[in-house]
Amino acid sequence: MSNEKMTILIDGVAVEATEGQTILQAAADAGIYIPRLCNHKDLLPGGHCRICTVKINGRPGSSCTFPVADGLVIENDTDELNAMRRAIVEMLFVEGNHYCPSCEASGNCELQALGYRLGMINPEYPYQEPKNEIDATHDDVYIDRDRCVLCGRCARASVQLDGKRVFGFDGRGLGTRIAVNSPDGLGGTNLSVDDRAATICPTGCLRVKGQGPDIPVGQRAYDSTPIGSDIERKQTVKQAT
Amino acid sequence: MAVSTSNQKRKVVINPVTRVEGHGKVTIQLDENGHVERTRFHIIEFRGFERFVQGRMYWEAPIIVQRLCGICPVSHHLAASKAMDVVAGVDQVSPTAEKMRRLMHYGQTYQSHALHFFHLASPDLLFGFDAPVEKRNVLAVLAEYPDVARKAVLMRQYGQEVIKATSGKKIHGTGSLPGGVNKNLGAAERDTLQARVDTMIEWAVEGLELCKTITKADLDKLVKFGSFESNFMSIVAEDGCMDLYDGKLRVIDADGEKIFDQVAPADYLDYIEEEVRPWSYMKFPFIKSLGKEKGWYRVGPLARVNACDYIDTPIAEKERQEFMALGGGRPVHATMAYHWARMIETVHAAEKMKELLADPDLQGTELRRKGERRNRGVAWIEAPRGTLFHHYEVDEQDKITLANLIVSTTNNNEAMNEAVRVIADQYLDGKEITEGLLNHIEVGIRAYDPCLSCATHALGQMRLQVRLTDARGHLIDEKLRG
Ligand code: SF4
Ligand code: SF4
Ligand code: FES
């Protein structure tokens, strides 16, 4: 892969990019946060959630999968796009059963943090109230599908980082669910608690057992700064130097 | 919703509106001669508690159950944590964890008692039970006793700050978890709290003095008001000392003799049974060995002060002795004595907070312990309103399969019925529900501080529905308040 430099324009700001990067990566390197959920820096992009949608030369596309090209004109932080992202987050909320106050992931959950960042107050869509049972068959890890956002991170991590095939999708449309490759549930798979897949879930869905809310309120990932702040902090540094 | 119970050919009507809004509902039934035959005090808040946690992971219980009760979430948070300590195989949490939890609990007791006494009870006591409803509220206290009202607000605030420092938030924090806690007390947090703790003791003592002055001024009336004799239940320490956070169960009879003592949480089912009655959503617990008729008891501040042998903080202990003198060697039985006992506990909680804040263990770093998983966990705590039981069964996969909670208000269920019966007997005049009767019932129920929204309604006015029926159950009169 060549290291050819190029320039793209994000919300009117010229950003230097390297060939082979996605728009989302190039933006992040420049300290610009594009909201995302299924994306993870250690995984190949999945393009599942569409929260990272930007306008590329006027047309919507997912920035986590779209490669940079010289001269691309990108819209990111616009009311229209943020409203669309908020709508997706709302749909994810109503499609599951998210009782944040009694969820052990609260404060560290990327879905919840996106809800806050995007200004979600109360979902306008009707709650689907799916009926799920917790899969606690594994000794060290459990799945609470009430909190799954079908981001596929666990599935990609299992293949790409752990060299296993523990997770996959099952069903279609609203019936889609995260599945495991054993009829006996997670306990029947070769998942280990040390696998990256075991801790890569952005929500409270796939969790190591026994933790509970072990990080005190005030010290959790998104207690004092919104999601994306780590990326935006880079920008401050850049402008200061 | 109307349910026909075919075998009895009787219609039980459950009013869905009342159910949502949480009225206290009182039915007074007269006999053929027009005397009070029996009364029923219905509370409809606590159904389905247990369902919420079934199927959930055991370490989630402390944060789930605190959502079930808006009035004393910390008590549920801690009781569930203690039960889940057992499940996690931890018999003794670290000193830091134990003391953080205790501090949280005393903070909660302090603020809850302060709220109760100043916001809910003091208007009745300061202005009289017969004062107009508009007068018997905290705004009137604010107008006529501004200093009392101001301190009350700051006392509550202090308790809430203690809760925040120990659990992360003023309400619904996460501080306590199976096996311990998730934080210690930072030196800065300690210093802020320590700076005001002496004032908090002082103000609690002032509140207690106020309560005593009012009570003594009208002692004859207050001692009789809605009073009856009963057994009392409380947790006590191994040596019989008052302990609001942990200990074994003691029940004394009306003369103060022990019915049982030092019962461990795991054995509670050998001693306590719960009766279901068709007309009430709430169960009626009773002491097995005494049976349904005689086995009911009272819990809460009065029960605790009566049941303990001593209190391990100096001011509260001196006050306890003075208080117990009222009983002349027997327990104090007066319903209105609950307030006095509550204020003694408020002082005790403040003294305890002072003691804890000076303890370096709170800055310790061993927060959480682990152990060998078990399938059953039972624990209790003395919540502000009385003994609170949490019992869980957890399967091999760490899922909760069963939960049984006996909340303070359930423990006081029969006692509140009894208080209402006595008051109806004392104040029912003819076949009409007068304002006076309504007021007195309200004051009587409030002494027990039931944790239902009707008891802590805005401005301290209780949402109450009182129905009067004749011997055959026909409605004679009905009044609604709130
Ligand atoms: S997974 Fe996230 S959004 Fe869902 S309940 Fe938990 S904290 Fe809330
Ligand atoms: S379990 Fe977690 S990581 Fe896997 S798809 Fe669901 S939300 Fe994503
Ligand atoms: S982050 Fe791009 S589609 Fe999910």
Name its key features:
heterodimer, A: 241 residues, alpha+beta, Ubiquitin-like (UB roll), Alpha-Beta Plaits, 2 domains, five-stranded mixed β-sheet, two-stranded antiparallel ribbon, 22% helix, B: 482 residues, Cytochrome-c3 Hydrogenase, chain B, four-stranded mixed β-sheet, 16 helices, 43% helix, globular, disordered N terminus, binds iron/sulfur cluster, binds FE2/S2 (inorganic) cluster
Word description of this protein:
- The complex is a heterodimer of chains A (241) and B (482).
- By secondary structure, chain A is of the alpha+beta class.
- Chain A has two domains: 5-77, Ubiquitin-like (UB roll) (Roll); 85-208, Alpha-Beta Plaits (2-Layer Sandwich), CATH 3.30.70.20.
- Chain A contains five helices and nine strands; from the N terminus they run ββαβββααβαβββα.
- Chain A has a five-stranded mixed sheet with strand order 2-1-5-3-4, covered by helices on one side.
- In chain A, a hairpin with a 2-residue loop joins strand 1 and strand 2.
- The model of chain A has no long low-confidence stretch (mean pLDDT 94).
- Chain B has 482 residues and is an alpha+beta fold.
- Chain B is globular, with a radius of gyration of 22 Å.
- In chain B, the strands form six sheets. A four-stranded mixed sheet of chain B has the order 4-3-16-17, with helices on one face.
- Among the domains of chain B are: 2-46 and 414-481, no CATH class; 93-228 and 342-368, Cytochrome-c3 Hydrogenase, chain B.
- Chain B contains 16 helices and 17 strands.
- The two termini of chain B are 23 Å apart.
- Chain B has helices at residues 16-21, 61-65, 73-87, 95-127, 138-144, 146-167, 187-217, 219-224, 268-271, 291-294, 301-307, 314-325, 337-357, 408-411, 413-427, 435-447, and strands at 2-5, 10-13, 24-30, 36-42, 176-177, 180-181, 231-236, 248-252, 258-263, 272-275, 284-287, 297-298, 376-383, 386-394, 400-406, 464-469, 475-481.
- The chains are: A alpha+beta (241), B alpha+beta (482).
- The A-B interface holds A 101-104, 133-134, 136-137, 142, 144, 209-219 and B 55-57, 59-60, 62-64, 67, 88, 167-169, 172-175, 177-178, 182-183, 368, 397-399.
